[in-house]
Amino acid sequence: MTYHVATPTELAYLRSPGQFSKIYLGFPQPSTIFTCRVNQTFTTTDMIREFIYDGGTGTYTDILPGMTIWVGLSAGARDVGMCRVRKAPTSTVIYIGETSELDWADDLYITVKDDFGLWPKHMFRDIDHVVFMDYDVAYSDQHEDFDPVPVMGPDAVLFYQGTLGGGNTIQTSFDASPSWVIESTITTYSWSAPGASATSGMSTATPTLTYNAPGTYRVSCLITAANGKSFTGYRKVIVFDLTALPVSQALLRSCTGDVEMGGWEAEIELYDSTELASIVERGECFIFARDWYGSVLAEDFSLVSSSVSFVASTKRILNPAALDVFTVGMTISVSGSTSNDGEYLVVESTPTYLVVAQALTTESAGDLVTITALYNQAEVSIGQVAGRENIILHGWISAERMIVNKKGGYATFRVQGSNFWLDSMEGFMIGFEHNLTPTEWIHFDQPTPDKALWNHLHWRSTASAVIDIQLTGDTRLCGAVEASVGSLWQQMVTMCNEYILARPCTDRYSRLFVQIESEYQPAATRSASHSTLMQLTSADYGEEIEAEYTPLNTVNQISLSGMYFNGVNVDTGLVAYASLANGHSFKRYGHNETIDRVVLSSQSQANELAGLIMTARNNPYPTITVPLIQDNRLLDICPQYYVTMIVDSENVPRSLNGIADGSYNLFVQSVSYEFDDLTGFFSVQVTLKFENKVNGEYADLAVTGDLPTNDNGDVDPFPEFPPFPPFPPFPSYQASRTYTWVIAVPTVGGIPGPKLKEMHKPLRISAYCVGGTSVTFNIELRSTIGTAGVDLMASDAVAPTTGIDVSTFAYPILIPDYWLWLDISAKSGSPTHVVITLATTV
Amino acid sequence: MTYRSEFEIGLTQGGLTNLDVLSTPVVPPKWFYSSFADTRSLGNGMTRGVGAPVATWRWGFIKKTQRDKLRTFCPGVSASVVIRTYTTESLDSAKEFSCIMFWPIDAEEINAGRRLDFTIEFRNLVLLSE
Q1: Which of A826, B27, B60, B69 gets the highest tally of CB atoms within 10 A of its CB?
Q2: C-alpha–C-alpha distance, residues A562 and A579, integer Å
Q3: Do the domain assignments include residue B97?
Q4: B3 within domain boundaries
Q5: Could you tell me which chain A residue has the CA closest to the CA of B94?
Q6: Interval A44-74: pLDDT, tens
Q7: How many structural domains compose chain B?
Q8: Which of B50, B87, B126 lies at the smallest CB-CB distance from A679?
């Protein structure tokens, strides 16, 4: 997982005076893909998974799985509710994610929006206990050849300071190169950007898209893996210009990201009634900014270097780095040079050279030259993702508060990131077990938490299509992985934390990162995965830093146990390990903590992990609160990285164990933005945690622990480990109907069946004859009882005396108000009876 | 040659008009300019100016017709405008800014048909290229 380390230029901006911002809200306005009306009656509103429609406007083949459907009492309305397109529709049927929350009725208005949201996908178990994902996706090879996961980067919000069109355009780019697939590699990228006025690199990982009109645009990327599987991710580009402005009459009341919370949330106030009316409940929201850095105080905004040289022929001022802090249009002052002291206007700016308007004298480096900004107000945003630096928070509106008063009133909205929404969706019980040849959804060949998480995010929600997801990469094997019923987020936390001590966290772009917590990573792994994003100095923070010091141990002993699995046989390939940190004797202070069910690879790893946990628990500086006097959106709560800090020694009242000298690492625990709407100043408060060491080591002392013994004193496998074989996933409730014909002395011809009252799907036809040899038959679906209809089976079935089951159907839907009709086409021998049963699901 | 100040106002940069040549000319104001709206103390003992630049135009007195002319640029409490005003940096050079114009909300002091101590504040100054 990569993150952007502050550049010298960015640090100069962050430490410049005159920083201010303008805050905007962007509410995507997705276009309508298709409209139609419901064309059926419903005897129940429970577990609706599809509906018949008519009166379609648009092209039904443009409807894509994952799109959002508005259901309303009038054209374009969503007053009945919303649901998700489950799979590609037919010319008469739209398939939706199973729902019981909408009051379905004939003639309701359907509007399919070009909008892909976060939704749960429900499971289904049929009467034979076969599990299906998203109602009807049967297991075939999904856990052997995995679907790839597109990591395309966040949505983009573009604000053109003029009028688009007539040759005026604005560009953005995406980067899907971090996309991944379990046990395979990504081979191709195929992008689509409807509405873009120009594109390039559409079959590469990094396309560039150009837009010449404001609007909300879909961007999709179909990625294909070497295993033959492919999957499409969807993102948005929202374009504003001065004719189509974002919402600006808003105040950012709070904006906080917290590792413990797992993501970000913000509270905003809106005043404009027109803008309020356009906001969709639970709607997507982008809080973004235009930012300015730099002003006129020369002593705060200058570069001093003895590497500066001058070239007369090209009017260039050269330095190895950081010159682009002086931007085009700025007047700079040069002093300390032999021949070039004076004022210059910058006409081109790069990190390594400036081109100025005035003449220069060629001069080599050597003098200690000071370059000072005389006047600058650079509009630039600084953030983690290139081209997305302007985004403060991407989330969805979770709550609203209306204030009614005589001044016109206003509304307060709470915007929350993807972590909140995954925590608001219930998931069925999760259970995966090892099977060398997976044949069911609960099987993985060599399960890992990452495989379980992939299934969770890809098959039980739409997350993998709409947000960036990065998993741990940990390859330790589990005999089984399970999580009880809970929210999708809580289940994810369980699978992460209990097995590999990892944590899911979403950044302010709603990107999901699952990482083993920094403090539980051994030294080698930690040094490879962590860099220092920036060093905080007294030019960054305000007058007071508050550090909480806890010299008292909170934990006196870590008792850790877990299991190694060889990936072959869960009965014979499991080895239990136990470890104690520091040992059998408790530390003087603290309490005992037991951690079990951890996935381990060796005894030495168990000991190291126990020691790491002990070090982390007894952190003497768990909370260091630092106010930053800068508009710093480089700092986020994930992915994990280091910052360091230097505090002038004369300002430290007591020793801070090295925190203050810049040599110790700190982890970001929370980030809060405070926006002063009167001045436009956007400041940051960051809470840090000390990276603790004991005697210079990450891991405290630990020894091999004691495995549980039975009554004979023999070492037992852990009674609770490995976990019990997982329970079959909890199914959605099965509603079924059966229609049975019992016919004595059957003859060739038709026999009427019942009239259907609701929509069914045929599940199975079972038939047998008594006496004779066989009876050949089919079942028709007739709109009129006297008129031939369509056969449910592609060819007639032959029912012998031993019976037959048919579960493949040419016509997969039984339509309300149609008739069933049994058609016997032949018989062999002299059967005395034939019994034919049609089982259906509702 | 007539001296002309560099105080200009308009709804767009292209529409900037010198106060001297508005349809109802307005006399040049006393001006104040700050590169920052606020200050914050740093850990190194220095103070950082933060927030957007602020400019203020103040007239010891102004005629009602002149006041009403300025009012056309800001009919409400605030409005987005473009101004050219002197700064206190770079030899007090004049610069063009987009900004928010705030109409004084306190009661205007009227004397002999004139407003006394009439002050207009401009906030969120964004420097425009010229």
Answers
A1: B69
A2: 9
A3: yes
A4: no
A5: A375
A6: 999 999 999 999 999 999 999 999 999 999 9
A7: 1
A8: B50
